[in-house]
Amino acid sequence: MSGSFLLSDKLERYIHKYGINETNIEEELRLLTLKEYSKSAHLQVSPDQSEFLKILIKIGDYKNILELGTYLGYSTLGMALATSGQILTIDKDDRFIKIAKNFWEKSKVDHKIKFKNGIAIDELEKLTEKSFDMIFVDADKTNNIRYYEKCKRLLTNDGIVIFDNILWKGKVSEDTKDPKVIKIKEFNSYVKNDNYFEISLISIGDGMMLCKKRITK
CA triplet 50, 6, 35: central angle to 5 degrees? Predict the structure, then answer.
């Protein structure tokens, strides 16, 4: 399952039964990740997070999507199935891209996806002529504030930015000296006090922060 720290196994099975609409290929990729790459499988979004991203795409009719952090391409696959547009996904690690592309091809959505191998913060600097109506940030958490600021200029007026792992297994509510948790707490505070976006912190998976440009009346 997703391994969410907020859910009991019983409740998670219930959500999976009634709230998840994975295709067979999505399920195959998710289970492959859990079996063959168990030590890094936590980098993959949970099925309920993937469904959440899909419904956001359909509600917003988002057609130009940027993803920071590809891993084995599970979230990329789900978003590609939901959009009629294009996805640019960026990751510094290309060890898994052959596997990801295989599943994208099997799902017949590979034509919607462009993979860029590179450091996310550096690649964002190069996107001077691009704009996106949805940006999903699931890269290294220590750079979230930098990603956040870069996303401001890349996002269309009606667009949305989603940050993953902003609860970090609930540790953000604890007094801790863990440098990664401290960085995530700093990010959450920064976004709240910046007041640039309307925000919603969703306790799904490991926590997701939704950021939508404020409407000026």
Answer: 55
61-119 residue pLDDT tens: 999 999 999 999 999 999 999 999 999 999 999 999 999 999 999 999 999 999 999 99
CB atoms within 10 A of CB 115: 19
Is pTM, for the whole model, over 0.90? yes
